[in-house]
Amino acid sequence: MECPKCHKPIGANDSVCKNCGLVLNDDGSKAKVPLFSPKKSSERKKERTELGFFSKAKTGGETAAKGQLIGKLKIFGIALAAVALIVVVIIIIVKVMGGGGEKTAEKISEYINKPVTTAEDKLGLHFKEESDFDGVNYAFGFDYIYEAEDDVKVDEVKYPEWAITINVDDDNDITAVTYTNIKLLEKNHKGVKTDSKISIDNFDEGDKLSKVLDGIGIDPYSITYRILGKTYVFKYYYHADNGDSWSVIVTAVFDTDDKLEYITSADVFPTDMSFS
Fold this sequence. Notes:
By secondary structure, the protein is α+β, with helices and mostly antiparallel strands. The protein has helices at about 40-50, 55-95, 100-110, 115-125, 135-140, 210-215, and strands spanning about 145, 150-155, 155-160, 165-170, 175-180, 190-195, 220-225, 230-240, 245-255, 260-270.
């Protein structure tokens, strides 16, 4: 017999031509060999699996898993956005209400010469005619008040941490807004402790607000806003050379351009609890 391909002699029982490698049928004719044998197909499938290629069933499962993951990521994204929104709202509230009520007082002061109801509507606030604290009703003079919910004790008497008092004219238009930081007096009703008496001799008419505040060196316990400017009041105490403890009130008045008009310093009786 001869090979149908290379025409060289082959044995009658040869299944493969030894010369060219042609696969033969039993009768010596050329055999029809499938493109992939079952073994090779299985091996190729294994290789595809190892390389990350999946059958339709597995692809469907993977798609479902990816879908679930995407769904979870979307939910997480929505939750994250909600948290971010809450944080933004809190930041806005803190900006408006920050500074122990000082920022709120400043916002209210923008409505001086306007009806008090306009300020309430525009700012979303509610002003009361009386304080929730008897100490404030006794020590302060006001027509309306907006105050902190948290309280402090000054000489065993409860006060709000801060209060914003509003004065109006006969038409109920705002004439003055005063912010008072009562928490400043929590440790001592005489005010902030200083090493010595604060000199006001270095301040001149026309000095900028920032220069005066830096020179005083302590936080004001009240700020009053009026149409023609604002007034800062500082309350502090110090120990004199003879050992006496004196409380002092410094009052600085500024014009509408935040330039100093005048400043005064006055000793007060140690037990004076006046807030004005």
